[in-house]
Amino acid sequence: MGELLRYREDERHEEPAVTLDAFLGQTNATAVRLESDEDARALIPHLGQLALVEVSFPKFRDGRGFSAARILREAGFTGELRAQGDVLVDQIPLMRRCGFDAFAPEAAIDLDALERALGRYDDVYQKAADARTPVWRRRHG
Amino acid sequence: MYKYDEYDQAIVDARVGEFRDQVNRRISGEMSEDQFKPLRLMNGLYLQLHAYMLRVAVPYGTMDARQMHMLATIARKYDKGYGHFTTRQNIQYNWIKLDQAPDILAELATVEMHAIQTSGNCIRNISSDQFAGAAADEVEDPRPWAELLRQWSTFHPEFSYLPRKFKIAVIGAEEDRAAVKLHDIGLQLYRNDAGEVGFRLFAGGGMGRTPMIAPVIREWLPKGDLLSYVESCLRVYNRYGRRDNMYKARIKILVHEIGAAEYARQVEEEWAHVKTLGLDPPASEFERIAGYFAPPAYDADLPDTVDRTDPDFTLWIDQNVSAHKQPGYAVVTISLKPAEGIPGDASADQIDLMADLADKYGHDELRVTHAQNIVLPHVRKRDLHTIWQALEGAGLATPNLDLISDIIACPGLDYCSLANARSIPLAQKIAGRFADLDRQRDVGELKLKISGCINACGHHHAGHIGILGVDRKGEENYQLSFGGSAAEDTSLAKIIGPGFNEDGVVDAVEKAVETYRGLRTEGERFLDTYRRVGLAPFKEAIYG
C-alpha cells in the first residue's frame, strides 16, 4: 500500500468511507466510496454533506473514474476527491486535471517520477476540471 | 497546412521528454511490462513478432515535404530503409529498437511530428479526405476541424483510458473518401436548406470482428458546438461502454446494445450540461487554424489541357489523376501498389522523391490515403508529364488506382503478432494473376481488401471483394466476401461460402471477376453487378 498523497490544505478526513448503497440509505455519513461501475450522479443531491468521495480504480485500465471525478467537480463538489486502487504515476497528472486532489495508490509511487510527471507540460489543449487555462484561451487573450 | 505555434511545439517537445522518462523507467525495471504497455501504446509503440513497431502520426494524412523527408531519414537511420503507410493515413516502421524510440520522437518533433495516440485505448489520429481542399465536390475543407479535434483530443485527461480505441474521421464532401460510417465517430460537413454549413454526426461504426455501419446520432450540429458535443459522446461511452470483454468494448457495441436512439438521448442529456462548461473554443481559434488551410496561391490562366500523345503517360493520367477544383490543376495519386510490391510500403529513396516532387511541383503538400497511397493534391497540369517521368523512374508510376491490384492489405503474419494468416504474399499473388493492365482496366474499379485476422486492419468488410485470413487447424485459410463498400454507399461484405487455401482464393477471385464480366451491363462496376444480380451466379461459378 502506497502512502496517501494529498494536494489539499485541509486536514485529512478520518471518517471511513461507506459504500454508495450504505450512504444513500443513511443520511449522516460524510465520506463515501464509489466503485467504478457506480453512477457518480447519484451523489449530486448530497454533495453539501460530503467531505470525501473515494473513487475506486480496480485496474489502471478502467478509466470510468476519470468521468466520475469530472461529473462531481462539474456539479460543484469541493471536498476531497480521492483516487484509490491501481493508480499509476503516469495517470496522476490526468487525474489531477479531472479534479482528483488525493491519491491512495495500492503500490508505492516513485515521488521523483511523479514530480517530473506533474511538471511536464506547461500547457494543455483542453479545458477540464482543474484551473489550467487551455492553449486556445492563451492564444486569444 | 497547419504550422505549430510555440504552444504546440512545447507540448510535442515535452512529450519526447516524457516518453524518454517512461522508457528509462521500463529499461531500469522500475516499471513492469504490463504497466509500460499502455504508455508505449499511447505513443504508437507495439511489440511485434520480430521487433518493436513504431507508428508515427500523420494528422488527417497531411504533410509537407520537410516532414516527408524526415520520414525517409527515420527509415534509413532507425529502420531497414523503408516504411509502411497505413489505412489510418499514418506510417509505421517495423524494425525499431526500444532504446532508440525516444530519439526518433526527438527527430520527429523538429518537423512538428509525433507518435501521440497512434495506438492505445484513447482517441486516435483523426483521419480525413485525402482530397480535402482540392476536391471539386467539397462544401468546406474538413482539415481545420480535424486539427481542432487533434488538439482537443491530445492528452485528453478524461478519455485516455477508454474501454477501447476510438477513431474519428471528418469529411466535407458528399463523396466519402474517408469511410466515415465505419468510424467510432464520423463527421460530415454539409450545407442545410438554410444555406448554413454544419455537421452530421455518425457514431458506432467500425470494422473489426463485429462490423457495423454507424447510424446518424445527430442530423445537424452547429459547427461551434463540435467539441462539447463530441466530448458528451465520449463521456457516455467512457461511462457505459463495456469493459468486461475487450472484444465488445468498442462504442459500436454500446450503440448497438442500447440502440442509436437511446445513445443519442443520453448524449443529448449529457450535452445539455456539458455545453454550459465553456469547453468550446471561440470562433477566433477556429479562424486561426483555418487560416493555415487557405488554398495555395494558384497560378491563373494555366492551360487546362494535357498532351496525350505518350500512351503510357496517358494511361497513368486516366487512372491516377483526378479533377481539381482549380482550372489548370490536378490531383495526383501515387500508387504504392506496384506489381510484386508490398501494399503501402515505400523505400526511403521513394519517400524522398515524393517529397521532392511535392516541394517542386505540388505547393509543398502531400497526403496519405486510407488506401495506402500518396497524393499530391495541387499540381499544375502542365507539370504532370515531368512528375510522371520522375515517378516512372522510381517505380512509383503504376497506373492502377482503384483497380484490382490497388489492394489494401494489413501487414499480416509476416509482421503482426495478432495475425492468423499472411496478407502480403496473397496480395502479391492476386496482383500477379491480374498483372495485365489492360485486363485490370477492362475490369474497372474493384476494391479488394485483405486482412490477416478478424481485427480487420485490412478493411476486408468494406471491400468490393474482401478476403479474411483465418487459421484452420494450423493451415492458413482464406474466407471470401463480396459486396462491401467504404464509400458514401457504405455496405458490409458478406461471406460467400467455405474458405480456400492461398492458391484457391486467387482462383476464386478470378472466377468472380470473369462472372462479373459476363454479367455486367454498360458502366456497371463489379460492386454494382453484384448488388444487382446477387450472390448466386458468383457462387455457382466458384463452387459449382
UniProtKB/TrEMBL annotation, chain A:
Xref: InterPro entries: UCP030820 (IPR008318)
Protein name: DUF934 domain-containing protein
UniProtKB/TrEMBL annotation, chain B:
Keyword annotations of the record: 4Fe-4S, Iron, Iron-sulfur, Metal-binding, Oxidoreductase
Cofactor(s) named in the record: siroheme; [4Fe-4S] cluster
Single biological process term from Gene Ontology: sulfate assimilation
Transmembrane segments: none
MF annotations from Gene Ontology: 4 iron, 4 sulfur cluster binding; heme binding; metal ion binding; sulfite reductase (ferredoxin) activity; sulfite reductase activity
Cellular-component GO terms for this entry: sulfite reductase complex (NADPH)
Residue ranges constituting the Nitrite/sulphite reductase 4Fe-4S domain according to the UniProt record: 119-273, 407-542
Domain Nitrite/Sulfite reductase ferredoxin-like: 52-109, 340-392
Pfam family, one: NIR_SIR_ferr
Protein name in UniProt: Nitrite/sulfite reductase
Organism whose genome encodes this protein: Alterirhizorhabdus solaris
